[in-house]
Amino acid sequence: MESRETGLCGRLKLKKYVRSYAMILALASIWIIFQAVTQGTFLSIRNISNLFRQMSVVGVLAIGMTVCLIAGNFDLSVGSVTGFLGAVAAWSISGLSQSPMAAVLLAVVIGCLIGCWNGFWIAYAGVPAFIATLGSSLIFKGGLYIVTQGTTIPVRDPFFLTLGQKYLPPALGYLLAGGTLIAFVFFDVRHQSSLSRVLGEQVSYFKRFGRYAGYLLVGAAFVVVMNSYEGIPIAVFVLLGLSGALTFVLAKTRFGRKVYAVGGNPRAARMSGINNAAVCMTTFIIMGGLAGMAGVLQTARLAAATPGAAMGMELDAVASSVIGGVSLAGGSGKVINSVIGALVMASLTNGMSLLNVNSDVQYIVKGLILIVAVWFDVRMRRAQNG
Amino acid sequence: MESRETGLCGRLKLKKYVRSYAMILALASIWIIFQAVTQGTFLSIRNISNLFRQMSVVGVLAIGMTVCLIAGNFDLSVGSVTGFLGAVAAWSISGLSQSPMAAVLLAVVIGCLIGCWNGFWIAYAGVPAFIATLGSSLIFKGGLYIVTQGTTIPVRDPFFLTLGQKYLPPALGYLLAGGTLIAFVFFDVRHQSSLSRVLGEQVSYFKRFGRYAGYLLVGAAFVVVMNSYEGIPIAVFVLLGLSGALTFVLAKTRFGRKVYAVGGNPRAARMSGINNAAVCMTTFIIMGGLAGMAGVLQTARLAAATPGAAMGMELDAVASSVIGGVSLAGGSGKVINSVIGALVMASLTNGMSLLNVNSDVQYIVKGLILIVAVWFDVRMRRAQNG
Amino acid sequence: MSAEVILKLCGIKKEFSGVRVLHGIDLAVRSGEIHALVGENGAGKSTLMKILSGVYPAGEYGGEFFLKGAKARFHGIKAAQRAGIEIIAQELELVLQMRVYENVFLGSGQKLPESEMIDRTMKVFRRLGIPLDPLAPVGGLGVGQRQMVAIAKALVKEADVLIFDEPTAALSEAESQKLFFILRELREKGITILYISHRLGEVLALSDTITVLRDGRLVETRLADRFDEGGLIACMIGRELCGRFPPALCEPGEEVLSVRGMSAQDSAGRRLVDGVSLSVRAGEIVGIAGLMGAGRTELVRCIFGAQPGRISGEIMLCGRPAAVSSPREAIRSGIGLVSEDRKLEGLVGMLDVMQNITMAGLGPLSLHGVMLDGEARRQAGYYVEKLGIRCTGLYQRVEGLSGGNQQKVCIAKFLLPKPRVLILDEPTRGVDVGAKYEIYELLRRLALEGVAVLIVSSDLPEVLGLSDRILVMKDGRITGELSRQEATQERVMYYATMEGN
Amino acid sequence: AQNEAPGTNEPSGAAVQQEQEEQEALPEEEGITVGVAQCTTQEERWRNDANALQKKADELGLSLQMVDAANDTATQATQIENLVSSGVDVILVSPTDSDAITPALAQAKAAGIPVVVWGRQANTADQDFFIINDFVETGKKMAQTALEACSAGNVVLIGGDKSSTVPTEMTEGMMSVLQPRLDDGSMKLVFEQYITNWMPDGAMSAMENALTQLGNGVDLVLCHNDGMAGGAIQALEGQGLAGTVPVVGMDAEIAALQRIVEGKQYSTVIFDHEGTADICLRAAQALAKGEPLDSLAVKKTAIEGAEIPTGEIPTIMITNENIMEVCVDSGIHTKEEIYLNA
Ligand SMILES: Nc1ncnc2c1ncn2[C@@H]1O[C@H](COP(=O)(O)OP(=O)(O)OP(=O)(O)O)[C@@H](O)[C@H]1O
Ligand SMILES: Nc1ncnc2c1ncn2[C@@H]1O[C@H](COP(=O)(O)OP(=O)(O)OP(=O)(O)O)[C@@H](O)[C@H]1O
Ligand SMILES: O[C@@H]1[C@@H](O)[C@H](O)OC[C@H]1O
Ligand SMILES: [Mg+2]
Ligand SMILES: [Mg+2]
Fold it and tell me: Which residues form a coiled coil (chain C) (predicted)?
């Protein structure tokens, strides 16, 4: 009996993988199609590097949005706030002659404070997230125009610009990837063995090492490709680091558990002694801090803060999460899937722009592919769940 | 026991009124403040007429959005679709030399078809509404640029322009208002008496006639104010007519019940034998048709279709509904409250623009007022519900 | 009793993600009989009924069934309804935002004016003998009242076959009796009733035929009078059950929980709880009995800090005053409440068994905020085993559990933080006899370990059998207190229906 | 999309074929592909540029790879990176933002791809030729023209979306001309509003509100583009004032030209698209072939320490006086188009 059940559990897990693979499959199809129609430019090493750099800002917002969405909320203000904080960072360097570190810190700290503001209205004052964050979006749009005075704030600090424009030295890239993999395998082995201790069954070594091999392959391919261009872009590295950290927070911490509970059934969470308001507040603070980071990356990438920076990016962030299967109803979702979602969005934009078609046609094709890709994903999942 | 409970129910009903009054109160405060700081311009008869005309396009979208929201969905494409359909109408008049009636019909019919398209992906293919309508929004944005070729399509047909720019003759205004009130009282009296027959309890005449008097007062004030300018603007009349029709559909038809049920608890609806997909599809068709109407009104108002028309209006529409207390979670909401929500949004924009403060400050103040107004509303409701 | 067969099931099979839960059920139901279905939690009763009523459409199950001789292939609930099969599901599916009468007529396919719907709703409730305002929003009703709404919903439709999946789990004796009266009336009219319940007494009294399911297989179908309770239990769980309630052994210890002058008002100013005082001692199990709407649920929610509105009164824990204004504070000070509504307030459906069980005790299961996964799994595994929660593993979503097993997960959730006071509102709602006994034993053991246990239950035999002391409530007040020795059904009912003060 | 011939390196079958045909016809230009990164083509002014570029490219036998950023700075950076990836020979760019464009151009530089900047300045030395359209200058010209129609009274300014720097620059130019009159009190700036997304509807509401606030006491309306001018004129129409209050716009949209001959709008600005395209592409061609640029440059501009050869985008003010010669005689529009309603 026991063994049958654990076997099933294995199968269920497998299905979960297939679920995230569905969108990866869709992504792969998109890539292959673009590769064909761009006659090889799309998957050129250089363009892959571009692609990842291009997705990094939205990616950082998307992983923050994932946390908000899992807790059953969302944040419409991140576009404005990212623009605002990017401008704040630029202004603290160019206007206040602060050090780049101080600028980054300032953006992130103010971001957290803005998160507090949003969280306060939503969690404690009971204003619907839609209105609270729409209001904030207006407020910080105004703030952005005030900080920039309607013009661009250029940033020349080379160290600051490194964040958006430079690459990790190849050797460091290999080192980091190797280190991450080893750490991961170490913890996974420990985790699995404690699992089998409880469930009284050995998890198949074959399957497990297959999985490790898979990760190794993807990781190695990524680093090799990046390194054969110029190295892992620092912005991409930041995104991956933050994604890793958030994945850990959501999966392995007490707070993470609470986020899923609050989003899944707020009443049940409250009745289990969870402080829903505090959890909700914290998710917005995380989102705010990440918006600060995104603003910094955006400013560093463009070497300037502009009055229109990051406008409308909140929709891209939510879209990335939803493409990655995060439910708007709360309670479910994974950071890594949102990153994949952001990659899908970036691929569409990048691929369409490589193609020499009218921008109106581009909009139409992009809209269609978006719908079809998600539909494919949904269908796969349904077929899996019978 | 029986009578005690019906008494309670009466009180509950009263509370519901207070609930819609809370936002009216907030609206009134906003009006009074603007009246003071604009030194009397805000509540001048002329500006009130402006205000209502300025809200009519968003208003039409907001009432459609209400239906989608009640059914537990939403539509991000309405901005693009409205722009697209406005351009289609303009082009069918200016380019195809169609009659204005045909143009209106075309816009509404194509709107319904677009609703079908959205509804199909959401209800039948299972694509999340966020993605399906975001995709559509891109598609019809592209369509808009193709139809307009990036330039303005002027419309000169006087009959068509009437829709956006002219007024009902004052006498007709009085007639319609009077007629509506009489019809309303007639049906309400019938309804109440059939209710009291069933419940075996007399509904207090005093309360009832108080209510009628209230409606009479508001209606008369509205018509008198409008007539002392130039009459009820036709666009406003269209909005009111459509609101009335949708209110009826939601409150009094079987389809309306189903919309609330599907949004309130989709599983319960399914278990009751409701065809959730069909209901969802229909709400999007309604939304699409209304977007067609909104596009027509917008084009008629500007005497032209422009490539940027109605851009981003979906957010205003959703915001209006949410301000009006419609829950994003589905299952509750009223058309009339969304109209009030749209009026709140329009009042903020109008009042701030009368004040002629810096546009950055305008954004900030608008954001703040929005949050505070909704917070006040939420607080009132909470206080009522304990 | 040889009426024609209205429903004939041939080899019905069903699996969920590869796990077979029905292994080929053959069954014949005769027209106009009350046919009961019993079996342990997770035996497959609800699943079978969902197949008959189109919830699982044709193609999602194996085997076939015939309705009135014709092969039935329903592609949805609507199709089943058209064919004359109506189900009142175990997990109540009502639209909380809508009013009672709107729910009753939801999807009924009847075109009726509003006043007519209200009128008919009132008539149904009059028949059911409960005063329920047809205009009240369902969200404000207790579980019992919601159950009545669901029943009314089925009764206003004209069905040939009515399926009731544990309709009385949240009803007290008096309300159940009214329902039985109506069911018998329907039987007279020739309507066939399929009836699922874990209350074996009522099954034996009500039904004509009884079918027993075990582990997805049909073990017995017999006329009801060929069964007695012991035999039925043996047939269900495959062994004899000695004694339905564990004996009370202990001498109560110190006073752990003491409540003074607890009152609660709702938003309309109605007193739901009216100056209640009570105390529970370590090692004691105190039961609260009463009819539906007596205010029992509100009382325990007050103690747990979960009741909205104006609350007054004081709570003492181990002689010290405790400020309990939220469930969080309650749990911190050692109070646990297993809510009567597991779906709304108990479970997070999309999370797995482990996450649900550990939800109220995350603190001790983490170090510096990081979850101690091994420990969490160990503890959750312990309770899964101890309560006999039937699941495919700790990582199964609780949505996929049978009703009774979901209830056990809710109980486990509040056992894990090791409370000093454990309150259970309808603790065995939907739990089978075998498991009920295990829960009783567990509660008794907890009491022995010094926990103060307070239970609210509409199952009168349960209250009588389990409690050391019984409080009876009526209209928000405690109208009587009975010791284990004095308590009888009649006495409890006397206090529960007592007029005035 | 019928008015735009597909780009010649379009990978679709027909386009490829077309490209081959062209290459056969013009063997000497084989291989020159110009990557064109436009800030937007959603506005008529920029779409006209796109059309003119395509036409000119066909004449010169160049391949174009056109992308447009829909006025989004980040998108544009992306697109330029993509153009560099796809290996174009020259990049022609109209920056959405002067500073934000610099890293992308540095990449082009690093890849050895010459850059021609047109429309707006790019604040970087990483460019080879610059064709300017100075919005401060344009603003000045617009205000000067407006003063011909009205030199005293209440002025309303309806500006574009502040999410780009254009409105700020145009206002700066306009104010520099109006300032003396504002100082001596003969003119008053009574209303100044910037419209989200340059939406004509927003401009119309703002104008309605201005008229309400001022009791119709408006003497001059300065709009940052024609779309918004159209909205403002609708609002004036509602008060029966269209034609009596001069309204100034920019872009020379056909609807605006029609209004000018009807007397409802006072002036607009046309960007000489053909001339622009000619200079841009000849500069691009020269750079690709490594030829000198002297004949195209009218001056040099010092940007970030480099002296960039600079050409000028001709802008022409259009009023009822010169509309025939500028728009009809040059063949941009027909008389019937413009006089449709007059
Ligand atoms: N949606 C589902 N997904 C996965 N497993 C399910 C699902 N529904 C039911 N099951 C499983 O099927 C088995 C039978 O469940 P069912 O609900 O029919 O039991 P039951 O006899 O009604 O029990 P109870 O008395 O507790 O209500 C259980 O083991 C349950 O876990
Ligand atoms: N939120 C609410 N709003 C209005 N009335 C409520 C609300 N919650 C409960 N009630 C009413 O309060 C009364 C007491 O209900 P309560 O749930 O305490 O009864 P109970 O004795 O636990 O019975 P049961 O749980 O069996 O229904 C009921 O009449 C119920 O309808
Ligand atoms: O032509 C104008 C363009 O230059 C500016 O960028 O956006 C507004 C347009 O009208
Ligand atoms: Mg069941
Ligand atoms: Mg109860």
Answer: none
Which of these, B64, B89, B87, B90, lies nearest to B77 by C-alpha position?
B64
C269 burial via Cβ count (<10 Å: 0-12, 13-18, 19+): exposed
Q: Please name the helix (run of DSSP H) or strand (run of DSSP E) that holds residue D131, with its range, or none.
A: strand D129-132
Inter-CA distances, A199 with A2, A185, D223, Å: 8, 20, 73
Name the residue among D163, D154, D146, D13 with its Cα closest to residue D96: D163
Residue in B5, B254, B260 closest to C97 by CB: B260
Write out the two tokens for A146: 């005030």
B67 pLDDT exceeds 70?
Answer: yes
ipTM of the complex: 0.84
Q: Mind giving me the DSSP string for C398-444?
A: GGGS-HHHHHHHHHHHHHTT--SEEEEESTTTT--HHHHHHHHHHHH
- B176-210 burial: b if 16+ Cβ within 10 Å, else e: bbeeeeeeebeeeeeeeebbeebbeeeeeeeeeee
What is the rounded distance in angstroms from the CA atom of residue D206 to the CA atom of residue D157?
A: 10
Q: Record the pTM.
A: 0.87
| B26 within 8 A of B344, measured Cβ to Cβ | yes
* Contacting residues for C29 by C-beta, under 8 A, at least 6 apart: C5, C6, C7, C8, C35, C161, C192, C194, C209
Q: Three-state DSSP class for D66?
A: strand
DSSP E strands in chain A: the ranges are 153-154, 304-305
Q: Which of D121, D254, C445 is nearest to B150 (CA)?
A: D254
Residue D248 CA to residue B152 CA, distance in Å, equals: 17
* Phi then psi dihedrals of residue C202, to 5 deg: -70, -30
Provide the CB-side half-sphere exposure for C452 (13 A, CA).
20
C-alpha D73/C-alpha D131 separation (Å) is 20
Report the alpha-carbon distance of residue D248 to residue B35 in Å, rounded. Answer: 31
What confidence tens digit (pLDDT) does each residue in C104-149 have?
998 877 778 888 889 899 988 888 888 888 888 898 888 888 888 9
With CB atoms and an 8 Å threshold, state whether A374 touches B128: yes
A229 pLDDT higher than 90: no
Contact B367/A139, CB-based, under 8 Å? yes
From C195, C179, C12, select the one nearest C88 (Cα to Cα). Answer: C195
C347/A265 Cβ within 8 A: yes
CB distance D77 to A301 below 8 Å:
yes
Q: By C-alpha distance, which of A116, A131, A165 is closest to A289?
A: A116
Token pair 């002694």 in the structure block, residue: A273
Q: Which residue of B has its CA nearest to C88?
A: B271
Retrieve residue C435's tokens.
């498991």
Beta bridge partners of C454: C286, C423
Rounded Cα gap, residues A164 and A238, in angstroms: 10
Which residues in C241-369 belong to E strands, given as ranges? 255-265, 271-281, 285-290, 310-317, 320-322, 335-338, 366-367
**What torsion do the CA atoms of B302, B307, B313, B315 make, to the nearest 10 degrees?**
-160
**Cα–Cα separations (whole angstroms), residue C352 to A325, C347, C348, C399:** 18, 10, 8, 8
| Residue pLDDT, tens place only, C246-302 | 777 667 788 899 999 999 988 777 888 999 999 999 889 999 998 878 889 999 999
Could you give the CA distance from residue A148 to residue A295 in angstroms, rounded to a whole number? Answer: 14
pLDDT single digits (tens) B107-147 = 999 999 999 999 999 999 999 999 999 999 999 999 998 88
Residue, of B199 and D241, whose pLDDT is higher:
D241
Which chain B residues have a beta carbon less than 8 Å from that of A76?
315
* Residue ranges of domains in chain A, CATH in brackets: 51-166+234-386 (1.10.3470), 167-232 (no CATH)
Instruction: Provide the CA D309 distance to its chain's centre, in angstroms.
Output: 20
**D198 CA: nearest ligand 3 atom:** 8
Query: In a mutagenesis test of the D interface, which of A47, A141, A314, A353 is the best target, namely the one with the most D β-carbons within 10 Å?
Result: A353
